[in-house]
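Hey, resending since the last one bounced:
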Amino acid sequence: MSAVAVSPWAARRQRAGELRDRHPFAGELLTLYLVLLPVQEDAWHRARERPPLPEELPRWAAAGVLPAVIEATVAAGPAALAEAVRGCDAERALVGWLAGAELDPADRYLARATLGPVLEALGEEAGFACDRARGADQSQLCPCCRGLPQLSILAASGESLASGPRSLLCSRCSASWSCSRSVCPACGESREARLSVFAERFDGPVSANGGGDGERPPVFPHLRIAGCSTCSRYLIEVDMGRDARAVPEVDELAALPLDLYAADQGLTKPTPNLMGF
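The structure tokens again:
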């Protein structure tokens, strides 16, 4: 592993603070996220400096990261989550998440909050700590750890009326990989009629292909729902050309109106984000 890595934590911290001030409806979740960030940053640095062996990762994280995650959650999280994490079989949750097992929301939150920064620090070696045989269609999974996609990201193209190429962000190790804009990232569906895109406006979500009052600016000009009626899955899609300051994994946490609208349409994400949405 290279000893040099660009730390993502300052940008995440700054963006979370900005979005918390801008979107009060996401304040509780972003407050918890801001309290978690120092814990995750410390885990990232320690894993970069002395990477744990893959077979030792659950025990390493349970001893050295998990207690601080629980402390931060009890201090700043919603009461129901704080109570739930106290009763979790934490190391079992960590093992299960690395294996791709279905976990209840509190276990999944603890595992992601604890292991996410460590796997991100391990980079290409993260896959050796994970079950890489997950899912029937391997082409839709992370090439590093075979985790599920969390976000769709459109790169800035340099042109005001066009977006750049698309990549997906892994929910497990934070790696990214290329994906065609004309397919569903969850199931590979390519028929245009089965793929839907919705953007958020002050008066409610509308089709990105038309509709709305045309007078009020979007609440999330750089975010939209990319959904599929074949598998009933969706991802939040971040257009970096519309907001170069966006930090995709942070901006997704503030996109609650989009998630609620998608749920009303019968859509679910391949996997919930860190905060369960």
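Residues 206-213 have pLDDT under 50 and may be disordered.

Sorry for the duplicate.
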